[in-house]
Design goal:
Number of helices: 14
Structural class: mainly alpha
Largest sheet: 3 strands, parallel
Mean pLDDT: 90
Distance between the termini: 35 Å
Shape: globular
Radius of gyration: 22 Å
Strand content: 5-15%
Order of helices and strands: HEEHHHHHHHHEHEHHHEH
Helix content: 40-55%
Number of strands: 5
Length: 272
């Protein structure tokens, strides 16, 4: 429905395009030449299907300032590869292989200690989306390298709670999906979920999302932190809150002669 992309979406839409790209890279890797950010020289990167799967989580990988800006360019990311330009993916992949970012070992240590139940792990591994997306690959690739004590399924199991709890979650959160909040709400006897439609991870912390578009709702939600439950019950307070808040539609960026890779080089001061 985006005017900017009206004439650029291939038959079958973006999902079909992603599937075609994954199948192409599964059949044969693609060799791409990009500029090395460390020395400015040309370097060859060989891309496989897992490189694409991993970086399809566009709102964290497209080098924009905010998740919404990343999402606005995500269709462009896919469509440039449909046209045969894999240079941006190659540049991101090269950085990832060199560990140019920063991931602390304590993150993996905590993940491996808390772990995941066998039934949940099998369910996720068996979901058809795994064919096209990298789901929990970071966790699965390192979990056998850690010797943490597993907390066990009793710790991981659902527990009923009477503690007043307010959940605020974006339905475009690719880190902690909205389904997680919906599941947790079933076990919160005094809980309430506000779904922010069109928002990403931690919507209350994103200036371009709910903070700028619905400041009055943010103030209303934050009142929860100062409530005196001797004077107002959680149920009475929750009744004043919406169950959903909707953000304005994202203005998607079109495919242009200036590619994502060109913009990346310009950001790095390497533009030709």
């Amino acid at each position: 429905r985006s005017p900017a992309l009206k004439d650029q979406i291939p038959e079958g839409g973006l999902l079909k395009a992603i599937q075609s790209l994954v199948l192409r890279l599964e059949e044969a890797p693609v060799t791409v030449e990009v500029i090395d950010r460390e020395n400015g020289e040309a370097v060859t990167v060989v891309l496989g299907a897992d490189d694409l799967r991993t970086r399809l989580r566009g709102y964290t990988f497209l080098m924009r300032d905010t998740p919404h800006e990343n999402l606005a360019h995500w269709p462009r990311f896919v469509l440039e590869m449909v046209e045969g330009d894999f240079r941006f993916l190659a540049a991101l992949t090269l950085d990832a292989r060199r560990n140019s970012g920063s991931t602390s070992l304590i993150t993996y240590s905590v993940d491996n200690s808390i772990g995941i139940s066998k039934s949940r792990d099998l369910k996720l591994a068996d979901e058809p989306e795994n064919r096209w997306l990298a789901i929990n690959t970071g966790f699965r690739s390192v979990r056998d390298l850690f010797s943490n004590i597993d907390v066990g399924d009793d710790f991981r199991s659902d527990q009923r709670s009477v503690v007043p709890t307010l959940l605020v979650s974006g339905d475009l959160d690719w880190s902690t999906p909205i389904e997680n909040a919906q599941h947790a709400l079933r076990f919160l006897d005094r809980g309430h979920l506000v779904t922010v439609k069109g928002a990403t991870h931690c919507p209350l912390n994103r200036e371009e999302q709910i903070l700028s578009q619905h400041p009055e709702s943010v103030d209303q939600i934050r009142r929860f932190l100062d409530l005196d439950f001797d004077k107002q019950t959680p149920e009475d307070y929750f009744s004043t809150l919406p169950t959903s808040i909707e953000l304005a539609p994202i203005e998607f960026a079109p495919v242009t002669n200036v590619t994502l890779y060109d913009e990346l080089l310009a950001r790095r001061g390497q533009a030709k």
